[in-house]
Specification:
The protein has about 70 residues and is mainly beta. It has one helix at about 55-60, and strands at about 10-15, 25, 30-35, 40-45, 50-55. The structure holds zinc ion.
Length: about 70
């Protein structure tokens, strides 16, 4: 499983269905996030090229206390 925290501060954004034009693979469950799905993009502030797209539920289950 990905550990984006090791990259430092993270910028977590919600992606609305109308903004999601491509399919992504969620690192939490290794399944597709189809286009036009509400999801989360996690962007390391110091390494924006390493952003990852997550299912909203996978991200929240991963960080239950924050
Ligand atoms: Zn997922």
């Amino acid at each position: 499983m990905d550990n984006p925290e090791i990259l430092g501060e993270l910028d977590v954004r919600f992606v609305q269905p109308y903004e999601a034009h491509k399919a992504y693979v969620c690192p939490g469950c290794n399944r597709d996030i189809p286009p036009r799905t509400h999801h989360v993009v996690v962007v390391p502030v110091d390494a924006p090229d390493l952003r990852r797209h997550w299912h909203k539920g996978c991200w929240e289950r991963r960080r239950p206390s924050s």
